[in-house]
Amino acid sequence: MASRKNQLAIDNDELMRRVEALINASKNRYRITVQVANRAKRRRYEDPDDIEDGWMKPIRRAVIEMSDELTEPEIIGDE
User: Fold this and answer.
1) Cross-referenced SUPFAM superfamilies, in alphabetical order?
2) In angstroms, how far is the first alpha carbon of the chain from the final one?
3) Contact call for residues 63 and 15 (beta carbons, < 8 A)
């Protein structure tokens, strides 16, 4: 799990750049905000063990995943 932690751990500046990229790529700022929140909520209930570890909050993970989907379209899943 240590490699997973290092892979997903990013600093706040990088996280803000990713948030801005998501907002800029979206036609509707409200909709992308709701999509990120829904993904974080879904992740929270799907993986309760990750919450107990406490190394990454679901909202940060959702932003990272969704911004990766912008840059790497082959990993886009069903939404």
Assistant:
1) RPB6/omega subunit-like
2) 26
3) yes
The pLDDT of residue 24 is above 80: yes
What does pLDDT average to over the chain? 77
Helix (H) or strand (E) holding 27: none
56's CB contacts (< 8 A; 6+ apart) are: 5, 8, 9, 50
Can you tell me which residue has the tokens 């993904």?
A: 39
Amino acid identity of 58? P
Question: Would you say residue 1 has pLDDT above 50?
Answer: no
Predicted local confidence at residue 52, as pLDDT: 52
